Amino acid sequence: MIWKSLGEAATAGERDLEAILARVPRWAGTRLRYLPVSGGISNANWRVSTGAGPDCFVKVPGRGTEMFIERGAANEASRKAHACGFGAAVIDFLPGDGVEIFAFVEGFRATSNLDFLRPAVRGNAVAALRAFNDSGPLTLTKTVFDMIEEHVAQVAAVGGRVPADFAAMMRRYGEAKAALTASGLDLVPCMNDTLAGNFLIDADDRVMLVDFEYASNNERAYELALWFDEMAFSEDAERAMIEAYFGRWDAAIDARIRVLKALADLKWATWAMIQEAVSTLDFDFYKYGTWKHRRARTLFHHPDWPRWLRRL
């Protein structure tokens, strides 16, 4: 990657970034340099140097992300994560553009699923998630039910593709929603996006959390369910993390997480089909969504599905 200075933009993305940087009051008259940061599938990410002090990380919203993301709520969650000791410092926020500016985190890198094969990384990540989940309510409450129902309406509005058995999957969703609602929800701040790339680690395996675009008050167990989905942990590893997070393992918690895994996959599969229709990013959203639909089916049609619902 090569640093560029203001005025050297050669692509549409670079021109958009330069226009945004010109609107940051604290950087008026500053000679800025920038380069792209890889990662992320719905935004453009940049490293910006001011020539004085630490570099900054600038997140520019991708086209269509306003359908899913309330940028003010994301910024609130980012600040809360920093306050609880597991998030990057927020330097600035441009509400009109939805652009967040963070201190660039030196000495840390994004994790991969392979990093989570190490118990130390898993344990530190559990502690980080628990701290954020226990950090006090956010302004925005959006449960997994709200997310799924919003996406179902959106995919229809944009003419996105859905699988032939989508109606059957939604019937299973309805069963899960009824059972979970009857059991009661433990609403806490959740990232709602626990991809490996949203955890950073340093050489000592210390963990930081990044990317709170989808954060909201949501069912506590959903945070672990989505994470387990993304990481494909072994059952022994999941059990150990449930014990570390809740202080115990029991059949009701286990069943709750299994049911929520299915809803997490349905949620992100439907999101992907919307993105396929509206996003301009070079990412195979259809393939991603198809994979998520297939994983949801394995749980919706699992022989233990009725028993899990009864255990909630």
What does this structure look like?
It is a single chain. The protein is of the alpha+beta class and 312 residues long. The chain folds into two domains: 4-103, 2-Layer Sandwich (Phosphorylase Kinase, domain 1), CATH 3.30.200; 109-311, Alpha-Beta Complex (Aminoglycoside 3'-phosphotransferase, Chain: A, domain 2). Helix content is 46%, strand content 15%. The strands form three sheets. It has a six-stranded antiparallel beta sheet with strand order 1-2-3-4-6-5, with helices on both faces. A three-stranded antiparallel beta sheet has the order 7-9-10, with helices on one face. It is globular, with a radius of gyration of 20 Å. 37% of the residues are buried. The model has no long low-confidence stretch (mean pLDDT 94).
Number of helix segments?
10
Written as H for each helix and E for each strand, in order along the chain, the element string is: EHEEEHEEEHHHEEEEHHHHH
The 3D shape can be described as: globular
Spatial order of the strands forming the largest sheet = 1-2-3-4-6-5
CATH superfamily of the largest domain: Aminoglycoside phosphotransferase (APH), C-terminal lobe
Q: What is the mean pLDDT? A: 94
CATH topology of the largest domain: Aminoglycoside 3'-phosphotransferase, Chain: A, domain 2
The quaternary organization reads as single chain
Strand proportion, as a percent range, falls in 5-15%
CATH architecture designation of the largest domain: Alpha-Beta Complex
Number of beta-strand segments: 11
Low-confidence stretches: none
Helicity range of the residues? Answer: 40-55%
Distance, first to last CA: 50 Å
Radius of gyration: 20 Å
CATH top level of the largest domain?
Alpha Beta
Structural class: alpha+beta
Major sheet attributes:
6 strands, antiparallel
The tally of structural domains comes to 2
